[in-house]
Amino acid sequence: MKKLPYNQNDNSMRRGTLLPAIAFSLLVVAAASALVMNKLWIDAAEVELQSVAEASALAAAGNYLGDDLLKPGFDADAAVEQAKQRAADVAASNMVGGQPVSLTITGDETDVVFGRRVDNGIDPETVFLLTNKNPSVVEVRASRSRVLGNPINLFYPGVTKRAHADATMIVEVTFDNRIDHFVAAPARPIPAFPFAILANDPLGKRTDTWANMIEAGQGADEYAYNEVTHEVVKQSDGIPEMILKSVPLKSDPLEGNVQLLDFNNDLNDQKIIQQIHNGLTQLDMQPWNNRLQAHQEIEMTGLGNITTPIQFALESQIGQQKLCLLYNQVSAMDVPGWTSLTCEGVVAIRILKVIPESGEVATVIIQPTVLTTKSAVLAQFFDETADYPDLPPNLAEMMVEPKTITPNKYVYKIYVSR
Q1: In a 10 Å sphere around its CB, with 0-12 CB exposed, 13-18 middle and 19+ buried, how is residue 214 labelled?
Q2: pLDDT tens figures, 118-141
Q3: Which of 2, 101, 149, 370 is paired with 60 by a 20 to 30 Å CA distance?
Q4: Whole-number Å distance between alpha carbons of 240 and 223
Q5: Coil, helix or strand for 191?
Q6: Measured between alpha carbons, how far is 347 from 197 in angstroms, rounded to an integer?
Q7: Contact in structure between 144 and 130 (CB atoms under 8 Å)
Q8: What is the pairing mode between strands 321-332 and 192-198?
């Protein structure tokens, strides 16, 4: 077979033809890669900005919802400014694209604003009303932009002809105190003490009630809780206090103004102590379908004695914010110290001092506080017809009794709404 002559010049010509094509292909691939990487980088920055905006808004709402709300002469403007500063501090502690986020909190165009959502009178959509008076929404705008001098730096600007990008995320957080009930989750008990406080005396003979000492402001004001040092100090803070008194063993349990409650604990000291430390779990709330009602009456069994071990447990909770039930009606049972009581209403308290006395008697000084909790279920999001899954919707609605939810000035739920 005859062989064709080998021509070295032909290979050189082919290589010369392919090299420009390969170079052009590499340039296209590099440009495409740069565009993809930049897109992913911008997307990652937007996700980070969203997280920063949410964290800042939640921090601002939590800061605003402090005990100052309960003090006479509450300065709403000062509270909002303090909350804005808290939002800015949280944002500055977070990084987006390798740089901290800066929020403008002064001037007319601020990145953090408080207000309310109101009906516009035209369609179901609401409008944001900017106000510091009784706000229920905080809006945070987190940005990285060329105008602010902190844009997102991109890859390969020489290839994409684009060195920077802008990104802005706006988040709204709502805080609401129209609470229907509280629920426990597997890893999140209800932050509540297993005792109830005397709400009022219909006969008007007793003054050691929540209505008189707290709501009417007749309680002493001798202690304050320092949020920085987490210590109780002997000084006035503008919030009235209430003295809770248990009764000695083998005495009339109705003479006290506090009752330990049987939240599935059989009024056993060790179980009560565990609930004081940990709150109310799903197992504790099982007899009540895992719902601690915020307004409806709850029939409970109580105990008017607070033993020394329980006093120590309460002392360990000094400064902690927790929920507590109120009771109106109470009667003694055949078992010494036991009571049958009707609880109605939930408040938030902070233990300031526990004073043990002889005869297993305890004096506990408490004051109201403002508590935010994820365990709260808002009335607007609770569908009571779900309790009747076997009934048609129209019949289920007939089974539900209309309720009037009164805002609870001591307890709020915070959530990201937009």
Answers
A1: buried
A2: 887 777 778 888 999 999 999 999
A3: 149
A4: 9
A5: coil
A6: 10
A7: no
A8: parallel
